[in-house]
Structures are given as structure tokens and as C-alpha cells.
């Protein structure tokens, strides 16, 4: 009976907590619906190929392949400029009878797609050329047979046959040599290299968010924050004080995560390593402000943990780990309110393309806007706990 009594008491407390019930029953449904929208979208990879001095037939064969766009350029210099500006994913240049392929290789999936599309198009072009040559050879053979019937002398017929065989031999083509070049990495660079800059930011965001939120919640539930709010200290001073104190830990954690990730996993960093750390530090401050803000809405550590699926799971889906190119426009629009997306884009540009941090003003500016807005909301949010 005592067991039943304890069970009834706990159930009554749970049913009184509407927030817990909502997070237990509604949050999983929302996340499952979100996953359905993301994973049921077109998962094909769209690629854009720039060609230089390539035949019209080969260009047409590549363009006829689904999800492949072909852009022609007059010189390789203009094509390289387009590759650097991310307008194309690879360059195909014909050198005599051979081909030179240059891949951006920032996404191994796109590199593999370009390789397959080019080989399929080249094979189809060769087959068409062989068909044309065979047709001409057949017509020559028919004509030769008519000549053989008209000509009486066997020696002249043998000479004509020899000439036809030589003509047929001359139509055969040498297999072209294909040379591959990679702007980033090499042929062994996998999809994990694209994910790593984003995963780096995700782990920075997740752990800073969790630690800061839990720490401030403990300050509030223990009464420390209430006593502090009872003093004449300004709310802004309290928020900045907490952010600076946890910020020191966030800085140390961020530097450690970045350095260990780059050195232990052997990731190639084309740009400046310090720039990678700076971007992740800004993201850590955003996570810090976010964690402090959500802790003001939680009454216990259990409720704080319940916020994780609603906050962290969307960060994974819309950060760029799952390609957004093939998703519906309204799904991609959600990513614009996700801080990790901007940090991931910036760090990817630094690591894979060697972009200077001074060229990433847009991404950094958006992260700073997130930081300012969340800090202001934290200052306003403390007003509800001030008794005086």
C-alpha cells in the first residue's frame, strides 16, 4: 500500500507539471516530424561542372545527366575563379586527346558525383562515336562488296580490301588519359572532413550550453542568485559577471576542443588556425548566453535537461551536417535562425578554402547579433526574480 501511495503522489506531481508533460509527449512528436521532413526530401546531390575546350557532344552528354549542370568557360583561369567563388564544383579541361579534372573536394559526395558523371558521359560519347564509325564502316563494306562484284581481277580486289581495313583502323580512337587534381585534400578525403568543422562547433555549443545552464540553475535553486538580486547590483552587472566567469571556462574548453580535433584527427587546415579558434569562441559565447537564458525558464535540473532535445536536435539537423541544398525552401529557411550554421559555414571556409577571417563579416556579424540579443534577453529575464 505504501508503494501505491508513493506512486500516486509522484504521478500527481508529474501531472501538475504541465511543462514536463508537454516535453515528454509533444517534443518527441515534433522531433520525429522534423526528421521526417528532412530525411524524406530529395537526397540526390546537385553538382555544377565547368568545362574548358571540351567538345559540344561531351558537354551535352554531361548536361543530360540528372542533377548535373554544365557551364562552359573560354579559359581555365576564368574556370578556376568560378571554382574559388563556389559557382562550380569541378573543372573539366581537354588537353589534346586527354582530360584534366580539378575538384574543389570540399564535399567528397560531390567529387564522387562529378567523377561518375564525367565517366558516364565520356563512355556514352565514345559509344556514339564508335556507332558512327561502325555505320560508316558498314557502308564502306557494302560499297566494297558492290565493287568486288564489278571487278574481275582478284589482285585489285585484294588491294581495295587492304585499303578499307586501313581506313577502318584509322577510325579507332585511343583511350583518353584522365588526370585528377584536388583543391582541398586528396582522393582519400571523405565526407567526414566536411562534417568535422561543423561537429567541432556543435560540441563547443552543446557543452557550453549545458554547463552554463546547469550552473546558473544551481545558483538560483540554492538561493545564491536571489540573495544577489536583493542587493543594489544592476541586473546587467550580474549577467555580465556570470558570462565572464563561465566565459573563461568556455574559452579554455573551446581552445582544447579545436586543437585536439585538428591535431588528433589530422584535419588539413588551409587557412589560419587562430581564425578557427576565434569563430568557435564567439559561438561558445552565444551558447553561454543561450544556456543562461533557458535556465531562467527551468525550475529544476530535470526541466533543464528536457530543453536539450528542443534546442540541440535542430542545431544538428540545420547546421549543415545534413546537406540543405536538396531540401525544400521553407526547410532551408529554418537554418537561418540556427547559430551553428553560421559558425559552421565560417569555419568550413577557413579550413577548406583558406578564407581570411576579415572576409567572413556576414557570418561573424550574425553570431554577434545572436550574442547581443540573448544577452539583452538575459538582463530582462532576471527582472522576474528581483524582489526589490
UniProtKB/TrEMBL annotation:
It is found in: Cell membrane. It is a multi-pass membrane protein. Residues 141-385 form the ABC transmembrane type-2 domain. InterPro entries: ABC-2_transporter_component (IPR051449), ABC2_TM (IPR013525), ABC2_TM_bact-type (IPR047817). The keyword Amino-acid biosynthesis does not apply. The keyword Protein biosynthesis does not apply. Its main location: membrane. It comes from the Bacteria. The chain crosses the membrane at residues 21-39, 195-217, 238-267, 273-295, 307-324, 357-380. Keywords: Cell membrane, Membrane, Transmembrane, Transmembrane helix, Transport. Belongs to the ABC-2 integral membrane protein family. This is ABC transporter permease.
Amino acid at each position: 500500500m505504501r508503494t501505491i501511495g508513493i506512486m500516486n503522489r509522484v504521478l500527481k506531481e508529474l501531472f501538475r507539471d504541465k511543462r514536463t508533460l508537454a516535453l515528454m509527449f509533444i517534443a518527441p512528436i515534433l522531433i520525429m516530424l522534423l526528421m521526417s521532413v528532412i530525411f524524406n526530401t530529395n537526397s540526390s546531390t546537385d553538382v555544377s561542372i565547368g568545362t574548358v575546350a571540351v567538345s559540344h557532344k561531351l558537354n551535352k552528354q554531361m548536361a543530360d545527366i540528372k542533377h548535373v549542370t554544365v557551364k562552359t568557360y573560354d579559359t581555365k583561369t576564368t574556370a578556376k575563379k568560378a571554382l574559388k567563388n563556389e559557382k562550380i564544383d569541378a573543372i573539366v579541361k581537354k588537353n589534346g586527346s586527354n582530360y584534366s579534372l580539378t575538384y574543389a573536394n570540399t564535399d567528397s559526395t560531390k567529387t564522387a558525383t562529378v567523377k561518375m558523371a564525367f565517366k558516364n558521359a565520356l563512355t556514352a560519347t565514345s559509344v556514339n562515336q564508335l556507332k558512327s564509325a561502325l555505320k560508316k564502316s558498314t557502308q564502306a563494306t557494302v560499297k566494297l562488296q558492290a565493287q568486288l562484284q564489278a571487278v574481275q581481277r582478284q589482285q585489285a580486289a585484294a588491294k581495295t580490301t587492304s585499303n578499307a581495313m586501313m581506313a577502318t583502323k584509322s577510325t579507332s580512337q585511343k583511350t583518353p588519359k584522365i588526370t585528377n587534381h584536388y583543391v582541398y585534400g586528396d582522393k582519400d578525403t571523405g565526407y567526414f572532413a566536411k562534417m568535422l568543422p561543423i561537429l567541432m562547433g556543435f560540441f563547443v555549443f552543446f557543452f557550453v550550453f549545458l554547463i552554463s545552464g546547469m550552473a546558473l540553475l544551481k545558483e538560483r535553486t540554492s538561493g545564491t542568485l536571489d540573495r544577489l538580486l536583493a542587493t543594489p547590483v544592476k541586473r546587467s552587472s550580474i549577467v555580465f559577471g556570470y558570462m565572464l566567469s563561465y566565459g573563461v571556462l568556455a574559452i579554455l574548453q573551446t581552445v582544447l576542443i579545436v586543437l585536439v580535433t585538428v591535431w588528433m584527427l589530422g584535419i588539413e587546415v588551409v587557412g589560419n588556425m587562430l581564425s578557427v579558434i576565434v569563430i568557435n569562441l564567439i559561438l561558445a559565447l552565444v551558447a553561454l548566453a543561450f544556456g543562461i537564458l533557458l535556465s531562467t525558464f527551468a525550475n529544476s535540473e530535470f526541466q533543464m535537461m528536457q530543453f536539450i532535445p528542443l534546442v540541440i536536435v535542430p542545431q544538428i539537423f540545420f547546421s549543415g551536417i545534413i546537406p540543405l541544398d536538396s531540401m525544400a525552401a521553407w526547410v532551408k529557411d529554418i537554418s537561418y535562425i540556427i547559430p551553428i550554421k553560421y559558425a559552421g559555414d565560417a569555419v568550413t571556409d577557413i579550413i577548406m578554402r583558406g578564407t581570411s577571417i576579415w572576409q567572413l563579416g556576414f557570418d561573424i556579424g550574425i553570431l554577434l547579433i545572436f550574442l547581443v540579443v540573448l544577452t539583452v534577453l538575459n538582463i530582462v529575464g532576471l527582472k522576474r526574480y528581483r524582489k526589490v
